[in-house]
Amino acid sequence: MKKNLSVALLLLGIIVTQSCSPVKVVTDTREGTDFSDFKTFKVVHFVNEDDQKAQKFRINSMNRDRIKDAITSQAEARGMKLVDSDADVLIFWATDIDMEKSYSSNTSYAGGSYWGYRGSYYYGGGPAYTTTTENRYYIGKLSIAVAQPEDKQMLWLSHGTKELTGDASKAPETIKLIVGKIMEQFPIGQLPE
């Protein structure tokens, strides 16, 4: 009975981990920065000039608003205040998409062993066929940075990456998930308990 329960729990764990693609977060902070004085912020969508000319990494206005709202909500929950001008810090955000490939191969053999005349055992050789499949998948990246308004010097930077499913109906919850995971590392304020 214990063995069956252990196997069932193991299978359940595998199914749960396979069904949701995790968000991977990488963070960097400028050493010696005192974040305790920052009380106000402004959210800014950052697109570099080359990408803008090529109209690369365009994001629709609904998702742009969702990202801005999620960042604003997370910062305000930590005691900060959104302002239009004279902010203590700027919170920049940008998106990126990378296509990655993986390959899988399957080999099948023709021919093989058989029983022959008077019970003798024979092995017959035969051709082998290998099929290789290329799988393409897309990794979405959201970067959030805290910078000084005067000189745009970056004080904190974090990237969250997640495999994209292509299901537009999940965009609101996916954006909240990624922003939430990134903002767990946010150096300003703390979430109330």
Summary, kept brief:
The protein has 193 residues and is of the alpha/beta class.
Protein model, in words:
This protein has 193 residues and is of the alpha/beta class. The protein has a domain at 20-100 and 139-183: Double Stranded RNA Binding Domain, CATH 3.30.160. The protein has four helices and eight strands, in the order αββααββββββα. It has helices spanning 2-19, 49-53, 61-77, 171-183; strands spanning 24-29, 40-45, 81-82, 89-109, 112-115, 121-124, 128-147, 154-163. Strands 1-8-7-4-2-3 form a six-stranded mixed beta sheet. Helix 3 (61-77) runs parallel beside helix 4 (171-183). The two termini are 41 Å apart. The model is unreliable at 1-19 (pLDDT under 50).
User: Number of DSSP helices?
Assistant: 4
| Biggest beta sheet attributes | 6 strands, mixed
How many strands? Answer: 8
With strands numbered from the N-terminus, the spatial order across the biggest sheet is: 1-8-7-4-2-3
- The CATH architecture of the domain at 20-100 and 139-183: 2-Layer Sandwich
H-E string:
HEEHHEEEEEEH
Task: State the secondary-structure class.
Answer: alpha/beta
Which word captures the global form?
A: elongated
Radius of gyration, in angstroms, nearest whole number:
26 Å
CATH topology of the domain at 20-100 and 139-183: Double Stranded RNA Binding Domain
**Weakly predicted, low-confidence segments:** 1-19
